[in-house]
């Protein structure tokens, strides 16, 4: 029996709809708790102020030095990190992070579940990235990065889910979570 929260890492390329899917998942299953990341990236106009804890490069480095991150990584020139966890007791934790972060989490906790979301097709992903309002060169960079991320996700043994239809995606994620819980001796098994 393992009473530590299950760490559920959700990775996937930009434009795959990760945050929308995660928002629905959290809403539907209140036993899950979403960790909020720190980033040095600027907030997008379309983004809520609570999407990240937006900090300066200096604040980020200070937190690294104070050993205040569970994991952190650089992604396309910006820092992103998961603060040391403060999950309410009894709730499992969702980390929406990139595959470099996923690797660090799995190194620390081999029982963590890694879910990799992929877009139904590259054209759809490109449409979603553009809709988000990123500048053109960023869209191109993120599309290149997407292919690398998919390879890394496979290599890390992720449960790969294609985000065709949001309800189906959320239910497939929930099944994977229940399976991972059962696998570590929870749910009375
Ligand atoms: P975006 O700039 O599109 O919000 O995020 C870029 C990438 O960084 C995405 O793959 C996102 O999942 C990832 N990311 C967000 N927060 C974190 C974090 O705390 N740690 C790591 N390693 N990646 C993160």
Notes on the structure:
This protein is 41% helix and 21% strand. By secondary structure, it is of the alpha/beta class. The protein has one domain: P-loop containing nucleotide triphosphate hydrolases (Rossmann fold), CATH 3.40.50.300. Helix 1 crosses helix 6 and helix 4 (122-131) crosses helix 5 (136-155). The mean pLDDT is 91. It binds guanosine-5'-monophosphate. The site of guanosine-5'-monophosphate has 14 residues, from strand 5, strand 6 and helix 3.
Quick structural gist:
The chain is of the alpha/beta class. It is built from 6 helices and 9 strands. The model has no long low-confidence stretch (mean pLDDT 91).
Average pLDDT rating: 91
Largest sheet: 5 strands, parallel
Oligomer: single chain
Number of helices: 6
Order of helices and strands: EHEEEHEEEHEHHEH
Structural class: alpha/beta
Distance between the termini: 9 Å
Taking all Cα atoms into account, the compactness measure Rg is: 16 Å
User: Numbering strands along the chain, what is their spatial order in the largest sheet?
Assistant: 2-7-1-8-9
Shape: globular
CATH superfamily: P-loop containing nucleotide triphosphate hydrolases
| CATH domain fold name | Rossmann fold
What is the CATH class? Alpha Beta
* Bound compounds: guanosine-5'-monophosphate
Give the helix proportion (percent range): 40-55%
Q: Which CATH architecture is right?
A: 3-Layer(aba) Sandwich
* Model regions low in confidence, pLDDT < 50 over at least 5 residues: none
List the topology elements.
Blueprint: E1 7-11, H1 18-28, E2 32-34, E3 38-39, E4 53-54, H2 57-65, E5 69-75, E6 78-83, E7 92-96, H3 99-108, E8 113-118, H4 122-131, H5 136-155, E9 159-162, H6 166-183
Parallel strand pairs: 1-7, 1-8, 2-7, 3-4, 8-9
Antiparallel strand pairs: 3-6, 5-6
Helix pairs in contact: 1-6, 4-5
The protein binds guanosine-5'-monophosphate.
């Amino acid at each position: 029996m393992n009473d530590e929260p299950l760490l559920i890492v959700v990775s996937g390329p930009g434009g795959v709809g990760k945050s929308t899917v995660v928002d629905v998942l959290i809403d539907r299953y209140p036993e899950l708790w979403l960790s909020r990341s720190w980033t040095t990236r600027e907030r997008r106009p379309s983004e809520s102020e609570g999407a990240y804890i937006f900090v300066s490069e200096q604040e980020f480095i200070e937190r690294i030095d104070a050993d205040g991150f569970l994991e952190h990584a650089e992604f396309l020139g910006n820092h992103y990190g998961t603060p040391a966890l403060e999950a309410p007791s009894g709730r499992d934790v969702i980390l929406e992070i990139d595959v470099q972060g996923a690797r660090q989490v799995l190194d620390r906790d081999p029982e963590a579940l890694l879910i990799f979301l992929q877009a139904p097709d590259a054209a759809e992903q490109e449409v979603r990235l553009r809709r988000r309002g990123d500048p053109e060169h960023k869209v191109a960079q993120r599309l290149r990065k997407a292919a690398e991320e998919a390879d890394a996700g496979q290599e890390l043994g992720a449960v790969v889910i294609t985000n065709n239809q949001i309800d189906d995606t959320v239910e497939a994620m929930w099944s994977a979570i229940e399976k991972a819980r059962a696998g570590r001796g929870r749910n009375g098994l």
